[in-house]
Structures are given as C-alpha cells and as structure tokens.
Amino acid sequence: MRPCREAIAVLVVSGLLGLPAAAGAATQWTPLSDAPTGDVNISNTNEIGLERSADGVLHVLWVNSRANGTQALLHSAVTGTVAGSPDVVANPNLVLSVTTAANQSFNDRVDLVPSAAGGLRALFATTFPGNTIDGILATSTSANGGSTWSGAVAASATASAQRSPVYAATGIGGATNLQGSTTGTWGDSSPTGGGYRVGLTTNGADTHFSDSCCEIDPNAAFDSATGAGFVAANLQDTGIQVIPLSGGASAVVPQSAHAWTLQRTSITGRIGADGVYVGYGTGDNMFNAKPAIWRIGAPQFIFLKNESDAGHVGIAAAPEGRLWVYWEREGSVYASRTNRDISKFGAIVKVKGPHSGDDSFFNLQGEGSLGTLDLFALASAASGPENWYVQRLAPGLTLDTPDGKVVKRGKKIKFQVTDAGDAVQGIDVSTVIGGKTISKTTNAAGKAKLKIPKDAKKGNQTAFTEPDPGYTGAKAAFKIKG
C-alpha cells in the first residue's frame, strides 16, 4: 500500500456572504437532445465530460441509450456567451455506437479532455467482445469535435494478467498536462480494481489505488504554472485521497470523509495561476454539507459558513485564477465565484432547477473558463425521466452602503459595487423615487453617489444594479429620513 499522510485541517471562514444575488437576466435551462432518434434515455448514474476549445465552443461528451437497442457515445457543442442561456446546444455527433443485443454496453460515466494535437480526446469504457477495447479504458480523438472521430483504441493495459475492469468502474476521469500527455483514471469496481494510466499507454501494468475498498469517482488535474499533476479518488468514510503523479506521499482532503458520492471528484488547476484545488462538501454526512475548497498541500481550507445541506458540490476554473463553486439544495442550484487569490467568495447566485424547482438532482458539472459558469444538471421532475440540462450563470455582484443605510432628504448616499471584494467600475446603480429613476455609474473604486430629492417620501427604499451582461445583479436596502 502507498504511504498516506493526513492534511492539517484548519477552518477558515471566507466571504462576501449574504443573500443570493438578484438575477440580472432571465435564466433558461436547455436540455441535451439526441438526433436523429430524438430519444433521451439515460440513468441517474450518467456522467458527462466537458472541454472548451480555443474558439470558445464548449464540448460535451455523453452516453445515451436509444430506443432502437443501441447505446451511443455522443458529442454535443454548446455555443454563445450570453448569461442566462447557453444560446445553442447543437444536435450531437456520433463518436461510437454499440449494440446491446451483442453484449455491447457503455459505462455511462465518461470524460473529455484536450488532445495533444489541440483537438479533443474522449475517455470511456465499453464491453465489446472480440475487440481490443473490450472492458478497458478506451479513447477516441477529434480535431474539432465535429462529425469525424478516430476509431476507438485501447488506453490502458491490454494483457490478460494486467487489464483493469474499467467497464465496471465507479467513475472515469482524466486530464492533459502541459506537454499534451493525458492521464486517465477509473474507480474501483472491486478492491484493487481502480487506478490510473499516465500517458494512456497499453504496455505493462496499470497503476492501482490501494487495497482498500472503495475508491470511487476519480479525476485528475495539473497545475497550469508548475505542471505538477494529481489523481484524486473518494475513499468512502475516510476521505478524498490525492495522489501526486511525481511520486511521494498521498494526502487526505481535510474533512472530506462524507463528500458526495457518484459524482466525479472536483479537482482542477487554475487558469493563469498556480495551485491545484479540490471542491467538495464538508460535514458529518453528505446531505448536511458546506461547500469547501482546499488547495493541495495547504494547511487550511475555506468554506461558505452560512450554507448548509449543500449537495453535489463542485468547482470550475475561471479566468485570472478565480474558481467557481456550485451546489444544489431543495430544487435550486447555487454558485459563487471567488476572488483572484481564492480568499473570498463572491455573492451567491441562485436559480431554480430545470423543472421550476420540483427537481431531484443526480449530478452537477460546470465549466467556467469564459468567466461565466456553464452549469450542467442531471435532474428529473417528480414523475419525469432524467436528462442533462445546461444554462449559463454570470458572477454575482454585491451592492453595499459603506457609509450607512440612512440618508436625509436632499443629501447623497454612497453605494459600492464589488465582485468577491474587488471594486467594479462602470456599473449603473439606480433607485426609483416618486416614479423617477435616479442613477449613477460606479467609478474606479466601485463607488457611486445617488442624490435623494428634497421632496422624497420618508421610509424604506431599494437600490439596484442595472442589468450588465457580465454579472448577475444585486440589490441594497436603505432608508430615507427627514
């Protein structure tokens, strides 16, 4: 067994916290669809792969069981940049099809990573008697995610005494390093069944997790600055195990013994900054969790102290080194984007689930490289089938009154607009008094002063940020006195 050392867990409360930010634009969930059959028939264990190409298109890899007795590994493209809607979810391209009557079937948990040539690489597993990819990790590539995908080839050990049962694995994940080499990983189907493959070679034995059962929901990530790589898997009732690919001791993510299961471990490097982070729920059980972030090797982790009962917690990298954190609770999904040094959370954005809040969630996955968050939810209504839905969320603004919430008639009241503690310039702050809108634009310090009319009615009032395509809006209460 590999050596293990427990990370020091020190709770650090971080925020800008408070009420969820008011929506700045109407939100819309768009389902994944399957053409030409039109059928969507997926189980609640289904898991997708996400990767954004250099042209801004978000690519989705997923498995669908069709009514004609086949299972399809599909690629869909999501385009557009408008918050509140992914704009267009294209009809899918077929990567590979199998026939269930021939004892062919996919593991319905797949992943998508960049290929060395700048295109896309699918990671998956299938039973396929008589084929070299039968039961092990397999891969296929595409230059641009279009209709042309390479034939599936083996991506883990193929020798009979060395093969891994990836088809039955509890989760498949992967990541590509700075040199274009991909590490694929898969979860236990039995003790010693789970493991990983650096470089997707087929000669020699795979690297396996420990003899403990069960290490599930694995994933991999690389530091975008140093190139350091890690594989992470959830050893139930013990914690998320993080294994450095360079060798050395593994670590246990602090207070992760009850992290959510049957969802890929959320581990990521940062865009334009160093460090690899794990996002998870911390608490005494996975249904009573607080969203948490831990930088691998750090003595502390941070969490949203005012949030509880958070399910399916995950993170996604955003520009400037920021991270998105997302979770679900009682039919709604929530998300918050951090500041640049991952020391504060921004305002929480809340949206109802795809079925007007009457949802059961089975998985959440997100991609944040545009700055906004493309959030995918595997959900169903109380009596409906499961499907994946996507929408785009913009980071939440916070609107404060730094000099106090009370203003006299005829005087000015100061407002400040921030994004995870950072001042935001160019945001219009408004209030409506006596049917008239009063508005000012924030300066470089994120501040704007509104002058209250001398004849304004005394009492409680509300200020708000005007709609902005880059942000979800905010509100602030204040009081007018004589």
Q: What is the average of the pLDDT values?
A: 92
Outline the low-pLDDT stretches.
1-26
- In terms of DSSP E residues, the strand content is over 45%
Using DSSP, what is the number of strands? 41
Question: Can you list the strand order of the major beta sheet?
Answer: 1-21-20-19-18
Reported for the largest beta sheet, the result is: 5 strands, mixed
Helix content: under 10%
First and last CA, distance:
74 Å
How many helical stretches?
Answer: 0
Using the alpha-carbon principal axes, give the shape. Answer: elongated
Radius of gyration: 24 Å
Structural class: mainly beta
Description of the molecule:
By secondary structure, the protein is an all-beta fold. The chain is built from no helices and 41 strands. It is elongated, with a radius of gyration of 24 Å.
SSE map:
Blueprint: E1 4-6, E2 11-13, E3 30-31, E4 49-52, E5 58-65, E6 70-79, E7 88-89, E8 93-99, E9 105-106, E10 111-114, E11 120-127, E12 137-142, E13 153-154, E14 172-176, E15 182-186, E16 195-198, E17 207-208, E18 215-222, E19 229-235, E20 239-244, E21 250-252, E22 266-270, E23 273-283, E24 289-295, E25 301-303, E26 311-317, E27 323-329, E28 332-337, E29 349-352, E30 360-367, E31 373-380, E32 387-393, E33 398-400, E34 406-408, E35 412-419, E36 422-423, E37 428-433, E38 436-441, E39 447-451, E40 459-465, E41 475-481
